[in-house]
Amino acid sequence: MDSPTSTRYHRDVRAFIPAAAEVPGYLTMPAAHAAIWELAKAHLAVRNNDSHTLYAYGLARALVERVEGADTDVVLPAILLHDTGWSTVPDDQILDAIAPGGGRPDLVRHHELEGARIATQILTTLGHPKPVIDEVVAIIDGHDSRREAISLNDACVKDADKLWRVTPHGLTIVQQWFGLDHDEALRICSARVQPYLLTDAGRAMGLALAAVASIDQVPQRAGLV
Ligand SMILES: [Fe+2]
Ligand SMILES: [Fe+2]
Question: What is the pTM of this model?
Answer without folding.
Answer: 0.93
